Amino acid sequence: MNSKNSDKTPTGDISNDRLRVTVWFREFAPSPDQRELLIPLKELRLTGALADVTLRVWGRQIAAGSSVIGGDDVERIRDRLSEFECWASQNGYSLVPVFKRRERTSMVSDERTPVIVLPTICLAVYDADRLVGVFPRRTVTEY
């Protein structure tokens, strides 16, 4: 295992009153498997092991660069992706191939748009406002 991440655990020295999880879904109607994930998270919240569990929806894909579609929601997703990539890079992890980069083609023109295909589910673990884990992920040596 990479020494950079060998002793990094999301909850190692974090107080429960600061530990929070944000779950990102691709759709507003999670699958039964995804709903099953929420059960233990809700239980951890109720027992005080987690300070908060937040659910967010981010869609199937997002333009990798600027787009005609903007707004607060799009910027929040872009900010989170940037935060996730920065955290992974600094901690010896990779988000590839979970966050897939590809080009989307248009049916009405030859235009190709770079997009990031978002995972069906992603967990971000925070110590208060500091990101301490992103799942799924890979160690750099696994990919």
What can be said about this structure in brief?
The protein is of the alpha+beta class and 143 residues long. The chain is built from two helices and nine strands. The radius of gyration is 17 Å and the shape is globular.
Question: What's the topology here?
Answer:
Layout: E1 19-25, H1 32-47, E2 52-57, E3 61-63, H2 72-90, E4 93-94, E5 100-105, E6 112-117, E7 121-127, E8 130-135, E9 138-139
Parallel strand pairs: 1-2
Antiparallel strand pairs: 1-7, 3-6, 4-9, 5-6, 7-8
Can you describe what's shown?
The chain is an alpha+beta fold and 143 residues long. Strands 2-1-7-8 form a four-stranded mixed beta sheet, sandwiched between helices. Strand 7 and strand 8 form a beta hairpin. The N terminus is likely disordered. It has two helices and nine strands.
Helix content: 10-25%
What's the overall average pLDDT, rounded? 85
| Relative strand content | 25-35%
- Characterize the main sheet: 4 strands, mixed
How is the largest sheet built, in terms of strand order? Answer: 2-1-7-8
The unreliable regions are 1-7
Question: How far apart are the termini?
Answer: 13 Å
SSE order:
EHEEHEEEEEE
Spatial extent as radius of gyration: 17 Å
Shape: globular
Which structural class do the helices and strands define? alpha+beta
Q: What brief labels describe this structure?
A:
143 residues, alpha+beta, 4-stranded mixed sheet, 31% strand, globular, HTH_63
